[in-house]
Amino acid sequence: MKTKKSFAWMLTLVFVLTLVLSACSGGNSGKNTPGNGGEATTAPTAEAEATKAPENREPVTLKLISWSDSYQELYDKFHEKYPWITIEQIPVNSQPIMEIIASLEAAGTPADLTWIDSDLITYDQSGLLEDLTPYIEKDPTFNEVQLPEGFFDTMTWKSKKLAVPFVDVPMWILVNKDLLAKHGVEFPANDWTYDDFREIAKKITDPEAGEYGLTTQPEFQMRVLSTKAIADGHAANIHYLNEDMTQSLLNTPEVMNDVRWLSEFVWKDGSMQSFAKATETGDVTREFINGKTGFAIGGDWVLPNLKKDAKFEWDVLPFPKGKVSQPGYTIYGPLSLLSGSKHKEEAFLWIAFQFSKEAQKWKIDQGANASVIDPELTAYYDETPMWEGKNKEAVKIAKENAKIQPGVTVPAWGEYNWNDLLNKIVFEGADINQLIPETEKWNKRTLEVRDTLK
Predict the structure, then answer these.
(1) What's the domain count of the chain?
(2) In the prediction, which pLDDT does 37 show?
(3) Residues 209 and 224 grouped into a single domain
(4) Structural domain containing residue 438
(5) What is the pLDDT of residues 51-86, one digit of tens each?
(6) Amino acid 117: pLDDT
(7) Average pLDDT of the chain?
């Protein structure tokens, strides 16, 4: 938690930065705004500019703020296509990204692009982000590809596209096939149900052998629980949000029963250990890779270690089927163009490059989803070495059925206390009725904040 002093200092930095950006960027924001002559200025078509011969271009280095150093191969592919442009990663190193933006601006070396570590609204209200709408409307790449319906919904605020996904992170149920076989349980079909999930978890649990159905990980309440609420028709969006994401349904009887359902894995079935029990037994069941649990939640970040170090046969399944649907869960990592960038045209080329087939295939090779709808990319799931010998159809189902994690454009999202509360209820046995006043408080707060935003 930040102290009030450090928080105030950060706000001061942001305020100063906002004034600097307002003074410096003026009509060069890439939006359709009146110029001095009364005419409208429009965002340049970056792809058209890029057609100039490389030898006639001044070298450009783009500063990209990110918390991952695993993208160098993609940076190199981009450099091969645009040899005058180099990507320089600015590591986050646990520092708030808004502070990094401010310090680079103050040093006269502003960043061009950033991954976003919190809600987009805060960045937008501080004047830090470029509206991507005019760039996207003119860009050949975006005009040629087919994107999923509602692709920009979670990254649009007041009709401004504030970001694009730099990666589409899918999630699956990881399965320890050896543990299933040991207990005589067949590998489930891809259309398995939440009832199947629970029954199998009980069947493969053997406390004397230190074996449990589920890994003790918060991801089960973070990902599966809210997805089950959608699957059973109790909520419209992940994290129990209603259709237009203005209110939480976490305090409704139906959703509270879903919470009780998952809690019973710990306190009734015994197929998942509580936090205390996991600690008492040496924390072995907190990590799927130890081979002592049957199911876990995984995304692309776990695949390298599993492929390298797992001593058992593992595979993946889509999230189970509910009473009305079989939704999956995915995270869009926001990538934004900073309004203080001195190289907006080139920076947008990096954004557009993310949606080329070359970049999309590279991301599939890392275990991520393809963002673009294209038969060639769908077929590539069968070709990539990443999924050789695994349940490829489950990966495709997870992609097709995925619901997007919300939050980046939900007012007061950081004050929505769903995660801590549910961990305490599910894994520590806390009183479920805490959800009622906490949800009522946030529902009021998010509407109040929404009314104040410009």
Answers:
(1) 2
(2) 36
(3) yes
(4) 170-331+407-452
(5) 556 667 899 999 999 988 889 999 999 999 999 999
(6) 78
(7) 89
Look at residue 92 and tell me whether its pLDDT is greater than 50.
Answer: yes
- Specify the pLDDT at position 55: 60
> Is the predicted pLDDT of residue 321 greater than 70, yes or no?
yes
The three state secondary structure string of the chain is CCCHHHHHHHHHHHHHHHHHHHHHHCCCCCCCEECCCCCEECCCCHHHHCCCCHHHCCCEEEEEEECCCCCHHHHHHHHHHCCCEEEEEEECCCCCHHHHHHHHHHCCCCCCEEECCCCHHHHHHCCCECCCHHHHHHCHHHHHCECCCCCCHHHEECCEECCEEEEEEEEEEEEEHHHHHHCCCCCCCCCCEHHHHHHHHHHCCEHHHCEEEECCCCHHHHHHHHHHHHHCCCCCEHHHECCCCCCECCCCHHHHHHHHHHHHHHHHHCCCCCHHHHHHCCCHHHCHHHCCEEEEEEEHHHHHHHHHHCCCCEEEECCCECCCCCCEEEEEEEEEEECCCCCHHHHHHHHHHCCCHHHHHHHHHCCCECCCECHHHHHHCCCCHHHCCCCHHHHHHHHHHEEECCCCCCCCHHHCCHHHHHHHHHHHCCCHHHHHHHHHHHHHHHHHHHHHCC
Structural domain contains residue 11: no
In a domain, 6, yes or no: no
Q: Are residues 317 and 373 in the same domain?
A: no
Q: Is the pLDDT of residue 2 over 70?
A: no
Q: CATH number, domain at 316?
A: 3.40.190.10
pLDDT tens digits, one per residue of 433-448: 999 999 999 999 999 9
- What is the tens place of the pLDDT at every residue in 350-374? 999 999 999 999 999 999 999 999 9
